[in-house]
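User: Modeling request: complex.
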Amino acid sequence: MFAYLVRRCVLSLLVLLGAAVATFLILHLAPGDPAQLMLGDVGATPEQIRALRVQLGLDDPLPAQLGRYLWRAAHLDFGYSFYSRQPVAAELARQLPATVELSLAAFLLAVVVGVPLGVVAALWRGRWLDSLATGGAVVGISMPSFWLGLLLIFAFAIYLGWFPVTGQGGLDRLVLPGIALAVGPGALIARLVRSSVLEVLRKEYVRVAQAKGLSPSRVLVRHILRNSLIPVVTIAGLQLGAMLSGAVVIETVFARQGVGRLAVTAILAKDFPLVQGVVFLAAVIYVTINTVVDVLYALLNPTIRLR
Amino acid sequence: MPRVLGTRSARIGLAFLGLVTALAILAPWLATHDPLAMTTGQVLKPPSRVHLFGTDQFGRDVWSRVVYGGRISLWLGFISVSIAVTVGGVLGLMAGLYPGRISGPIQWGTEVLLAFPGILLTLAVSAILGPGLIQAMVAVGLSAVPFYVRLVRGTTLAITSEAYIEAARALGGDDRRIALRHVLPNISGPLMVFISIGLGTAVLTGSALTFLGLGAQPPTPEWGGILAEGRNYMRQAWWITLFPGLAIMVTVLGFNMLGDGLRDALDATLRG
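Assistant: Request completed. Predicted assembly structure:
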């Protein structure tokens, strides 16, 4: 088990190293001179541009630049935003709490709704409740989150006036974006829980438990749910990571602060240090969540734990 | 094919896709107005007999924009998935056929790209390529490549470990012949499922990119773009937002349901 943990962590570190190299390439593959972009449209002289290139080390050989970039990335130093002139790390630290708040709220909602929906659909397989749940899930997966967000704004903020239209702060401002972000992952979780429960229902130990005369609720909790929810941990964890990318669109729709909206504005403004920072931060969070989920899965699943 | 049509999911999916494709192909005949023509006296008009889906803030006919938009959104889906299948298929096949020196870097690259969740990889590619429809197609396509590499590599590895491949090699079959005669025909089933669901994802991601301002640029009638323009007028004109979103959902639902049906049919085939 220990060897597995070490191997998993080393693999994650290698992937993060690759992710850092990939974000480094963003700046170098993008058209245009970074120094020119940084000086903006203020009519910088060629001398000023050349001086800035020297200052930023842009004339150094690429491997040297990459080495310097990796060293700084390991210290979460991505330089300064072209536009705000603030350190990228400070910008990220300012925006991250809002994204974490939204993602966690949506994740909680997706699990609280998705898991029971999947269990009910499996237990009532082939009945109208199952058709409703599975039909609802495929619609939920196919629905564009930005459209759902706009529909929610129209129905509950503009028409009924129950919630504020956009913005930050307070639970009431979290409800609509939380729902818009939760529907897709919740639907996916419901589908996976359904198929996982159906698979466990076919196992012999469930039939043995039923034959022993255990109460249906005891069979459900002790034998069916305990076993069928193990694979769901992996998928639910991956969905938490995917919330980060979903937040890009939802934060824009609801005009909320957050790293997702920061990413879009940075790309539109060609603010490359900020783009590099956001993209690398997302990779770090996603890889960390995936590693934790894998380790959790190994701990929960005796067939892996005892290996 | 008959087995695919035997599943309800595939039949509904194909019906949705048939409808959307027919609307897109017949757009020049079905559109009641020029999708780009602005009419000053017809601004933000609700749905009526003259304007089936109403008009937008420039007096353009939303129905005509939505049916023409189908052409762009479907093209975006097909081109980007073609890029992903071609690049991902070749890399996956190479990684599966040549484990070791070639497979290692391809696998590592795939894992690295998969570390960027969902639309973020597409956004990163868009940051390099800049905004535009062609750029969006390439960005959506390239960001889907790692998924195809993983699928094709995994399936190739499974197939090449079968006894009949060893027999083919023993009989002097070279790698190209093995790839074309044995691997590709066996891979087509899972790949079809993946492509169907991938097309839905590509349409969804492409319209999200345009919605964010990074895909097709105004006044091109792309579904995500029409939605983005309509969001500022939701209080006065809900129809600009409702109909393009519905079109995206029906299309993605169609691809997802077809993919589900294909998978069920394939599972039944594998079970015999």
